[in-house]
Each structure stands twice: as structure tokens, then as C-alpha cells.
Design goal:
The protein is an alpha/beta fold. The chain folds into 2 domains: about 1-40; about 50-275, Glycoside hydrolase/deacetylase (TIM Barrel, Alpha-Beta Barrel), CATH 3.20.20.370. It contains 10 helices and 15 strands. Strands 3, 4, 5, 11, 12 and 13 form a 6-stranded parallel sheet that branches. The longest helix is centred in the N-terminal third of the chain and has 18 residues, at about 20-40. Zinc ion binds next to loops. GO terms for molecular function: hydrolase activity, acting on carbon-nitrogen (but not peptide) bonds. InterPro entries: Glyco_hydro/deAcase_b/a-brl, NODB_dom, Polysacc_deacetylase_ArnD. Keywords: Signal.
């Protein structure tokens, strides 16, 4: 705190404006605010993970929408992927290293259709991007420290590069919730954080009519999240009818390696994050 206060002497009895120029006053207030955030215990970042909400970045109204499918752990929903192939619907698949190793047949089908599918990083072992001993999201333990987070991100990326043949540029953490410091670290490693705006299947727990109902709310710019790792769920059935209806409504599916995303619930400086291939 010493560093924050020594450059400027001021009295709390007189209005700040009379004691220093406006710019200096503003700088001081910002530093005091940052100091308060850093010195709060427990730190604020440790209290509330953020679920990042994104839409497709576009200066004008768009008909583009993005379907993203998470492959966390578990099996391969071949009904869902075969449906997408049959109907030429592009999708972005967020796969963990764990899932890739367990599903060689799924990997082979995806690799044969890289014109439709963009494979991106969902981590090595599906560990949420929250930092600190004992921290959990939906009952899943987070990372003990930043070193482990870096390993989760980079080992997931390495597995995709080796097994799919195309290096990923987007990251989606397990549970899609993040500490602000985890977001900063993942972006520093060169990955964009891929959020979403429509949760189509609530972790592959919804029945077919509920998935269809969620998809009825999709509009241009939306990023849909669903799951491709639970073939026993209703996700494939719900998406099959719902996605065809979106096509009939004139919406156009794009992959995340073709667009940038704009966060709708992050501070302003993180609003626009163009994809790395633009
Ligand atoms: Zn997941």
C-alpha cells in the first residue's frame, strides 16, 4: 500500500479536486480501488468464478450462429456426429485429452470430416479453471495453482495437435466457469476463452422437448453449447430436430476458427477477442 500513497499527499478534509489535477485524482482513485481489491482477504477472485457468455463478434446484425459440442470425458455420441455429417452442419468440438484417448473411433470419424469440424481445447483432464486448494465447481475440484492450470491447457492443446493434426486456438474450461486470474493466464498463453450464449442441454441432462425449447430461442450471433460425450442422453434427438428448424429459419452455422467472439458479461477491456486466424 505504501507505493500507492507516497507519490501524492492529500487530505481527506478537502475535496480531492482542489488538491490535485483531475487526471492525477483519477489515477489515485483507480490505484486505491486496485489496492483494495488486492488487499481484500480472501481475495475477490477466489469467491466468484465467472461463466463466460459470448456471442459472435459482428459489427452488423448477423445470421451466423455457432454450434459448440463438449467432449468432456465419457463416450462418443455417434448419432449426433453422424447427424451433423449427413446434414452438413459445421460444429466446433471442445475435446479433452482424456476423451480423445478413450474414443479412437470418434477421433477417426472427426478426422475424416475436418471440413465440417473444428477441434478445440477442453483441457487435459477436465479440471475447472478455478485456482486454490479445496475450490470446486459443480462438485468438481479445481486447480491447486497456476502451474497446474497451465499444464491442463497446454497438455490438452498438445493432444489435439498430435491426434487431430490442427493446433487449437480456443479454450473452454471444464464447467465453463473461470476465475478472472485463470482467464488472464489462459489468454496470456495465446488462447481465446470460448463462452456461449445458449445452453442447449444443461450438461446432457435435458429431455428432447426441453432441448428443442432451448433452441427455439436461438437468434443470429448466438453460440450454442451442448455435449457429444453422452450417447444415452436425449441431446442428439433434441438437437436433430432443433438444428434443422434453425436452418429452415435461415440461420447459418459457422465454426469458431472462422469468427471472433464478444463477451457479454466481462469488463469492457475483454469485450472483443478476435479469433487468432483473423
Ligand atoms: Zn466439459
Amino acid at each position: 500500500m505504501q507505493l500507492l500513497l507516497t507519490p501524492t499527499k492529500f487530505s481527506f478534509c478537502k475535496p480531492l479536486r482542489q488538491q490535485m489535477p483531475m487526471a492525477a485524482a483519477r489515477r489515485l482513485l483507480v490505484r486505491l480501488a486496485v489496492g483494495a481489491l488486492c488487499c481484500t482477504y480472501p481475495p475477490l477472485w477466489a469467491q466468484t468464478p465467472i461463466e463466460v457468455h459470448d456471442v459472435i463478434a459482428s459489427a452488423t446484425p448477423t445470421r451466423n450462429i455457432a454450434l459448440t459440442l463438449d467432449a468432456c470425458s465419457g463416450a462418443f455420441d455417434d448419432d449426433l456426429i453422424e447427424f451433423l455429417i449427413r446434414n452438413r452442419i459445421p460444429a466446433t468440438l471442445f475435446a479433452t485429452k482424456k476423451w480423445l484417448l478413450k474414443n479412437p473411433q470418434g477421433v477417426a470419424i472427426i478426422k475424416a470430416h475436418l471440413d465440417l469440424f473444428d477441434v478445440e481445447d477442453h483441457g487435459e483432464n477436465h479440471i475447472p479453471a478455478v485456482i486454490g486448494a479445496g475450490r470446486k465447481v459443480y462438485g468438481i475440484a479445481g486447480e491447486p495453482d497456476l502451474l497446474h492450470l497451465r499444464q491442463e491447457v497446454s497438455e490438452g492443446a498438445k493432444a489435439i495437435t498430435e491426434m487431430i493434426g490442427v493446433p487449437p486456438h480456443w479454450y473452454r474450461g471444464a464447467t465453463a466457469e473461470y476465475d478472472p486470474q485463470a482467464i488472464a493466464e489462459i489468454e496470456r498463453m495465446g488462447f481465446g476463452i470460448a463462452g456461449f450464449s445458449i445452453n442447449a442441454d444443461s450438461g446432457a441432462t435435458l429431455r428432447k422437448p426441453a432441448v428443442e425449447e432451448r433452441l427455439r430461442h436461438v437468434k443470429g450471433g448466438d453460440v450454442i453449447i451442448a455435449h457429444m460425450n453422452k450417447p444415452a442422453s436425449d441431446t442428439a434427438e433434441g438437437l436433430s430436430t432443433g438444428l434443422l428448424q434453425l436452418l429452415r429459419n435461415g440461420l447459418v452455422f459457422v465454426r469458431l476458427d472462422q469468427v471472433g467472439l464478444s463477451a457479454t458479461n466481462l469488463p469492457k477491456e475483454q469485450l472483443v477477442r478476435p479469433s487468432s486466424n483473423q
